Amino acid sequence: MKTLAYGLYGLNDSVQRMVRNLLPVALLLGRLYVAWAFFKAGLTKIDDWGTTLFLFEEEYSVPLLHPEVAAFLATFGELVFPVLLVFGLFSLVSSAGLFVINIVAVISLEVIAPAAELYHIVWGLILMALAMCGPGLFSLDKMISARLRRT
To answer: Are 37 and 123 in contact (CB under 8 A)?
Structure first.
């Protein structure tokens, strides 16, 4: 029985090492996926600014902000933060910024389709993981941080 337990713990340690080695790739893929989703939404907003303003005035109920200000901030955030996230630059700020945009988007809609709600949950979890774990090995933040430590 003791041998079986040691064998299982050894296997568990091996799998954990393998998964830990894949973490930088997973963080990069998470950054790229979330950045793509939000950047695409930002492009849609600037593609037809009149419709965007109409939606923020009539459909979205963003608390505490004038609809034009909310539309500008959402569009700015959806175009700037994803670019930063792709490069892994100011990752905490960009992931936290997109997390806030994501939360505001969910609470601003009176009715949200279950499929859309699920996407927002997935994006929120990925953004939370990025904020907590950092951007990973393949990022400018990591490169800049390593260079600053050397000097």
So the answer is: yes
Are the C-beta atoms of 112 and 106 separated by less than 8 Å? yes
SS3 state at 19: helix
d(CA 118, CA 104): 15
- End-to-end CA gap in the chain: 53
- Copy the structure tokens of residue 122: 């997935």
Domain residue limits, the chain: 23-150
Q: Which residues of the chain have pLDDT under 70?
A: none
Q: Which two tokens stand for residue 98?
A: 């997109």
Show the DSSP H helices in the chain as ranges: 2-47, 49-58, 67-87, 91-108, 114-133, 140-150
The three-class DSSP label of residue 48 is: coil
Query: Does pTM surpass 0.70?
Result: yes
